[in-house]
Amino acid sequence: MVIDLDKCTGCGACSVACMSENNVGVLHDETDKIRSITWLRVYQIDNGKSFPDTEVAFIPRPCMHCQGGKAGTPGQAFFQEDPLLDSEAHPPCVSVCPATATDYDEETGIVSQIPTRCIGCRYCVAACPYHARYFNWYDVPWPKGTPRALSPFVSPRMRGVVEKCTFCYQRYQRARNKALVDGSEVGEMDYQTACTEACPSGAITFGQLQNPEHKVHKLISSEHTFRLLEKLHTDPKVYYMSKREWVRKMADNYVTRHKKLAQAAAGGGH
Amino acid sequence: MRRWFDDLPKYADDSSWHPKGVKRCRPEIFLLWLGLPLTLLAYFTVGAVLCLALGLNQTNMNDYFAFGVWIVVDLAVIALGAGAFFTSFLNYIVGKTELKPIVNAAVLIGFICYVGAILMLGIDIGQPIRGWFGFWHANVHSMLTEVMFCITTYAIVLTIELLPTVLDNKRISRVPEFGTMSHNLHTIMIVFAAAGTFLSFFHQGSLGGMFGVLYARPFAARGGLGIWPWTFFLFIWSAIAAGPSFTTMIVMITEKVSGRKLTTHNVKMLMGKISGYLLVSYMLVKSADTAWWVWVKLPSMGLTMDDMYHNPYGYWLMWFELGLFGWLPALMLLQEKVRESYGWLFLAMLMTCTGVALNRFIFTIQSLALPVLPFEKFYSYLPSWQEWGIASLVLGFGLLVYMLAYRYLPVFPQEPELNDK
């Protein structure tokens, strides 16, 4: 997935579409943002300058579907604590789950979540630096009649389990089944996430990163592309684009103090 | 010495159940004492019912603080309960028989710590009925899987290790079958001591490994050796350093409360010496680990030490953990004069245990408190009254079991001899 932050207006249509597609409920108190569930959360950031130099950007944040590690030689790192070791994919959240309730699909690169197997220990929530995993602190108070309007393709989750963005995996399953019947391949437009379709400014592009035919493959080669927290070697599959340097800088941590010291040592101080 | 309650009329006499050659308070007084653990357990019950019936929204945990006071208490009591496996290991396997007078107490305290921790974890998970999935659908790559397996099996080992003390009760041992069973268990105890050492060694390590493997959480992420993060070894090391101190400390508190001498001071001094040497070696490794983390690991993640400490989780935590409750008690315990003094020994041991508990707090809470995304907010956390209720389980359950064991079981073999004098 590639998200062009210069096109994003922060309207939140992607979040709403995501909730509707994936049967994410609305809690009694949605102002409690550290307990409410938003698979695709839109962050607002600014450049820290006062008016009239203030600039604002919005960062939609789905699950990053991290790959971690390096692809190719599975099983070399048993506990897989080192993302730089040659090993199978190693997202921060998958190897920690004691009950195998989350898994990494080597074929699609999607990090799955099996709510019916989740025991609710929240170790994966602690492991994710993007806060993309949500624990169901409450039962969802579905208003009378609304369960009839839920999507039949996604199971609503119960209290006490963790859930997260699945890149609308049910849509992939449908596209794959259709391709199987038709005897064809899953095409770029056969499988698109709900957020991608809902974005009114076309800021979200979805496809196979490794497929040269897909638009996302071309987009990620742009010099304006970046990912969140690349220094942690999580190897996310969500890329962002912005021509504004301060936005790109906001995506990762930098050793500012060390840099200052280095500059001072090089005579660049004062 | 006659006490005021000795002249009160006797309503019940349970002295035939008391260990041989010891004196215990009257049953009515004991019942009054039991009010303390029972109150704590009532508080726990209220919290537990609310959390099980209404969900974990009764706590102050959230998606930023996925772990809270329960995990801190769990980690702390398991570390402090390490006195059980390490004292058994020294006594039965290394052959340090000078520790025999305290090994029963160590096993009892370990049993309390582990069973209490397991009970608390049952409430901590969002779907307690699915707790068995960790065994059935076990993910062999997860440190938590290893913790679940080893804590459960070690609790069983501790129960078996504790069984001979129960069977040695004056009345129970009159039943010939129980007497024989107790004798047989004593003769094969080395097997369970070895099994306990193996299991405890690994889960203490895995509890540390749980944090070290969080490679995307900069506070917790450390380097490692082979497949094990450094925290794996550091948690074992700190647990075996603090475990003997905690056991001894509890024995000393029991002595003060009961007014009876339970072990010779030499035993306590030896436990202090073991703790002291282990703590010094641990502090050396821990200091090296911290230095490597500050100067190598953090800059590689684009961070500095200043990013890791925000009030209320400021630098004071580090100085308290490594200095006041780390190096200071370590150096104190190395001094023979400190070990010779009852008060100073107790203080040094209390500081040791505080330091290790603080380490567990820091790894749990501070790791989660620090925002990783540059545009994320900093949140702090205070447990709800329901959380404290559940956390008080270890204390309530522990006091109850310990009081019953002290009254009815021959936990301290030196007690009759020491108090006759």
Give the gist of this structure.
Chain A is α+β, with helices and mostly antiparallel strands and 270 residues long. Chain A contains 7 helices and 10 strands.
Explain this structure to me?
The complex is a heterodimer of chains A (270) and B (421). Chain A is α+β, with helices and mostly antiparallel strands and 270 residues long. Chain A has a single domain, classed as Alpha-Beta Plaits (2-Layer Sandwich). Chain A has helices spanning 13-21, 123-127, 169-182, 194-198, 215-219, 245-249, 256-265; strands at residues 2-4, 41-46, 56-61, 102-104, 111-113, 134-135, 162-163, 204-205, 225-226, 239-241. Chain A has a 4-stranded mixed sheet. A two-stranded antiparallel sheet of chain A has the order 2-3. Chain B has a single domain (44-372, 393-416), classed as Formate dehydrogenase/DMSO reductase fold (Up-down Bundle). Chain B is 70% helix and 1% strand. Chain B has helices at residues 27-54, 69-80, 83-94, 100-124, 133-136, 143-167, 176-187, 189-212, 230-258, 265-300, 305-308, 315-334, 336-340, 342-369, 385-408, 415-420; strands at residues 224-225, 228-229. The longest helix of chain B is centred in the C-terminal third of the chain and has 36 residues, at 265-300. Chains A and B meet through helix 2, strand 6 and helix 7 of A and helix 6, helix 8 and strand 2 of B.
Outline the fold blueprint.
The complex is a heterodimer of chains A (270) and B (421).
Chain A: E1 2-4, H1 13-21, E2 41-46, E3 56-61, E4 102-104, E5 111-113, H2 123-127, E6 134-135, E7 162-163, H3 169-182, H4 194-198, E8 204-205, H5 215-219, E9 225-226, E10 239-241, H6 245-249, H7 256-265
Parallel strand pairs in A: 1-10
Antiparallel strand pairs in A: 1-8, 2-3, 4-5, 6-7, 9-10
Chain B: H1 27-54, H2 69-80, H3 83-94, H4 100-124, H5 133-136, H6 143-167, H7 176-187, H8 189-212, E1 224-225, E2 228-229, H9 230-258, H10 265-300, H11 305-308, H12 315-334, H13 336-340, H14 342-369, H15 385-408, H16 415-420
Antiparallel strand pairs in B: 1-2
Helix pairs in contact in B: 1-15, 2-4, 2-14, 2-15, 3-4, 3-8, 3-9, 4-6, 4-9, 4-15, 6-7, 6-8, 8-9, 9-10, 9-14, 10-12, 10-14, 12-14
